[in-house]
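Record 1 of the preview.
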Amino acid sequence: MENRSQDRKISIIIVTYNNILDINRLLQELLEIAGHFPIEIIVIDNNSHDGTREILEHYQNSIRLIINEENVGFAPAVNIGIDMAQTPYLMLLNPDISIDFLSIQSMYHYCMQHKHVAAVAPRILNVDGTLQPSRGSFPNIFRTFVHLARIKKIMPSDEACIRLMAWPLGKLFKQYSRPEMEQTVDYTTGACVLLNNQAVQEVGGMDERFFLYYEEIDLALRFKRKGYRWVFLNSISVYHKVAASSSQAPLLPYFERYKSMLLFYQKHHSKLAVFCVKLMLAVAVSCHYSFAKMHARFRIDPNISWLEEKNTYRHLLKLCVRS
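->
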């Protein structure tokens, strides 16, 4: 890219893992934006084996590229990008995000004008234009129970809940609160978020123990304890294909989500809270295992061997009894 790094305002950090269907489109969008706004593009590939690496190498004269020889996880890969960046702001982007110049510019200007804001995130829409859940509340025992019991699976869409039940539900779950044009939230998903690099350096970047999931929640909590805010801007929209790479190997995200959940509680909550969450998780995993054993439609992935899936349940149960 032509601009010198000291002239750039934002380093866009993208972590790829088997994203051949999305990364080419995103890089084309970003390179077009780079002609109007001073950004640099940093891509860290976590040992893709679907042709993603070959596509990235095609762009190596226009981006800063790191190819890992193994899948090191999301948080460690992001930290590689953070260490490479020399700009005042960092933007985390999933490869399956679609974003335009005005969205990046608006998020940047907001951060520039609000020095105590560590993170700014837009409204995220599904590709069909419907609202995608992106705002979140910090985990507690009640919210974790609702998650593990899969109560949200039987609820109406987020748009319906916000329209009909924003007052009671919004007090418990930020995703169901009525979105304001500018709203301080506990956190948003890391699919698209602009970070103040100074704040990131102050808290020490991502915690690399979170291989996948909860890394942005942990980061947001550390921001909050330092007096920073995480802001959701309802006036800015981007589009996102949900879990485009994790859907290719669903056992890994299933395991890592709950492993990271336990790590989050061990890091930020009391021993009693950790015990309660382990007990709830053990019950939830045992129920899921029992149903999956009875019928294939309850399985995580009917296309893989039952032995492999059964071992995933067993590894999770071992985490629940481990001290």
